[in-house]
Amino acid sequence: MAVTGTDIRVAKAFLMKGELVAIPTETVYGLAGNALNEQSVLSIFEVKNRPAFDPLIIHTDTISKIEQYVSEIPEKARTLASHFWPGPLTLLLPKKIIIPDLVTSGLDTVAVRIPKHPVALDLLSQLDFPLAAPSANPFGYISPTNATHVNAQLGDQISYILDGGECEVGIESTIIGFENNETIIYRLGGLEIDQIRDLIGEVSFMPHSSSDPKAPGMLKSHYAPRKPLYLEKRASISVFDPDQTGYLLFDTYLENVDKKYQRLLSPSGDLKEAAHNLFAYLRELDAMDVNFIKAERVPMSGLGLAINDRLQRAAATE
Ligand code: TXA
Ligand code: MG
Known about the structure:
Blueprint: E1 3-5, H1 8-16, E2 21-23, E3 30-34, H2 38-48, E4 57-59, H3 63-66, H4 75-84, E5 89-94, H5 101-104, E6 109-113, H6 118-125, E7 131-132, H7 147-154, E8 160-162, E9 174-179, E10 182-187, H8 193-200, E11 204-205, E12 229-232, E13 245-249, E14 262-264, H9 271-287, E15 292-296, H10 304-315
Parallel strand pairs: 1-8, 2-8, 4-6, 5-9, 10-11, 12-15, 13-14, 13-15
Antiparallel strand pairs: 2-3, 3-7, 4-7, 5-6, 9-10
Threonylcarbamoyladenylate binds near residues 25, 113 and 115.
């Protein structure tokens, strides 16, 4: 088990030595290392068992620091940044040479974000290098939304877990890139699409892919529990399943099923609350004495798009 604590000085000392620290953000916990130190970046890939073709997001606390790492910030990117940073938004921008190719898996763009978490921002403000930080889970598994989740899976391999409580948003950042004057969403996430459209107009989607390394964040089978997960509409969830099944439901319990096998994402039907609970409840169901998980699709509005996207990938078998 890793040492878990709230001491930013301890986290800073490990990071300055090139070691890895789990850090809280408003979306999910990150497995952080010095993005300018190739050894640290290599350890991130090793600890996560992450394929080298899947690039990392770098985190820092100000736009002026970001200007040291990227060669250009298009106007729409600046508009998004000034409205939504700090926040659950990641921008793909052309990288400067200072960012190691390892971080970007050889791509010309680097993913950057300013997270909205007081502990992360305090830490980042004290560092003169950005933190490369993927979600702090083994590759392909569910992202962690509290320090206990991180400890359960990566605790043996990291120096320190900086505990910042539960992640408020609960799903990863929305990833946006810019190509030929087009704004492209590469990953649905904690920033809602309507908020983006209201500010900068139309956006397009990069189709999901399980083979195109240009968009590895979109790997089809991802965010997955160990147990088989079936994603269904409410009406098609069969209640009299002979096998022991755990249920992940939106706002209403199923009748005729013991409540201990059911988790409600949001009893009041609030999609923000549902996103906040999503990964923690998936973990609880995965740890339960059941053979299968059945999940209900949530309404396709607001954060519902990102929630259903995660459930779809959790259900994929490829
Ligand atoms: O909310 C988040 O974004 C969290 C917290 C810790 O900040 N981080 C996170 O990182 O979700 P990760 O590594 O689990 O997912 C980042 C995704 C990767 O799957 C990768 O495919 C994509 O971002 N990505 C990174 N750099 C990219 C690039 N240059 N072009 C396209 N996709 C990129
Ligand atoms: Mg991840």
